[in-house]
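Let's practice the habit of predicting before peeking. Look at the sequence and jot down your guess about where helices and strands might fall. Then scroll down.
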Amino acid sequence: MSVDAKHKEYLESYEIWERCEHAAEGQNEIHEYGIKYLSRLSGQTDQEYHAYKQRALYYNATARTVDGLTGMLFLKPEVITAPAAMDSIIADVTMGGLSLHQFSEMVAEEVITIGRCGVLVDYPPIVNAVTLAQAQAQGARPYATIYDAESIINWKTGRINNVEQLTLVVLEEENEIPVDEFESKCEPQWRVLDLFEGRYRQRVFRKSDKGEFIL
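Done guessing? Here is the structure:
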């Protein structure tokens, strides 16, 4: 079994998640997938079907429902109890400019639309730092990343101290590789989070030119 193997429940649910996502995206997304959602009439040519599809209207009740339910969740301002040292994290929880409030809204929208998502709280690599102060001097601090349901392709659980817990999660990501000063390309990679000999570890696999998975 290779690192890109998908969990049985993932394979059973993927089409449902995809339909929910397309429905929430709206008319342009529905039109793009064409015959998947709008059957071709008997005898229609490609040109006739394209015109027929473009005339079709899609009322996006799904997105309106998601927006409404998300708005209800955040109708009242959240109350965050945290030490002052965490103010910078709360203001930018992703290290990409999203506040904790904005991040929470994204999580809520994903859960309402699809039914699940994942959040990975991680710490960036640090170079030659042995103390917390040295790590902070490099700008290192915890940050959060959201993974939609389609990106969480595999998982396992096991009993640890008589409690059923996750022992493996495989995340499918896109790795942006610069081509030149102005252009870049995206290639898939797989982030494996697991427990190995009682310790948490994280590995990233990519495909070689020969199609082999390498660390």
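How did you do? The mean pLDDT is 92.
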